[in-house]
Amino acid sequence: MVAIPSLIFRKELMDALIKNAAKDLATCKQAVALTGAGISVESNIPPFRGKGGIWEKFDPMEYAHIDAFMTDPVKVWNALLKDMKGIIDRAKPNDGHLGLARLETLGKLNTVITQNVDGLHQLAGNTDVIEFHGNFAWHFCLACGRRVKTGQIDLSEIPPKCPCGGIYRPDCVFFGEMIPSQALYRSRQAASTCDLMLVVGTSAVVQPAALMPVVAKQAGAKVIEINPETTPLTGSISDYLIQGKAGETLAAILSELERLL
Ligand code: APR
Fold it and tell me: Does one domain contain both 250 and 217?
């Protein structure tokens, strides 16, 4: 028995899984995507967990919990939010975002459920994006509730203040806060009515977002993961994992799918 060098084996396995995913997308009626920070890594936005993850540097309970923000907004603004603003301002959609937008144009995918707050799915062209954790594009005043575009905030003073004197906070969901009920309701509805769910770039450890692939599976959908690493969904909820980066994997799936359609 000739041992196939693992690199060749791996490439052949990847190619076969990409062909599989293209076939599954070609025959599906209504796909939904669940995305996490990993889909934006190729847009130079670091993930939270794993290699280069933000939570490797900062304890999320000390910097991303609502109680931490209310206790010391200066600390959270200085350590986390200021950098986040710069990174997101510079970020552009990558082939992963563009691939999901193309799936919508092809009539294959109608909804993206995202845990990300970077707005890159909308920039790429997806028109139905459920933002599970809000969007960093907006901030609001803790005192009077005034909403402003993040680009209009003056960061020469930390924490940035509203003309009424109140402190601005991002329109994102901190740990310790509820997921917007509309986002939760619509996500469960999308997950329970799709026949295929693409799970792209999420460690699938934060609930209730990580429940959506379970809801899809229970409703009879095929669940396909795209991630360089395995997750708690792999081998139990996911039908298969394509172990690759979101951008190059989705680009390869789309070119195979366009050949089939
Ligand atoms: N392509 C695809 N996946 C990638 C890539 C890439 N290029 N690079 C990394 N990944 C994978 C990692 O292997 C990991 O499984 O993306 C995942 C990123 O996981 P997290 O950083 O935990 O991000 P996410 O799953 O979105 O976290 C969920 O946790 O801290 C909260 O609010 C935060 O929304 C976030 C939530």
Answer: yes
Structural domain count of the chain: 2
C-alpha pair distances (Å), 152 with each of 10, 21, 148, 214: 48, 42, 7, 40
203 lines ligand 1 (CB under 6 A): yes
pTM above 0.70, yes or no: yes
Ligand 1 centre to CA of 114 (Å) is 11
Question: Does any ligand 1 atom lie closer than 6 A to the CB of residue 114?
Answer: no
CATH number at residue 80: 3.30.1600.10
The number of CA neighbours under 13 Å toward the Cβ of 87 is: 17
Domain range for 250 is 1-45+92-133+179-261
pLDDT, tens only, 79-117: 999 999 999 999 999 999 999 999 999 999 999 999 999
Annotated catalytic residue, options 65, 97, 121, 133 = 133
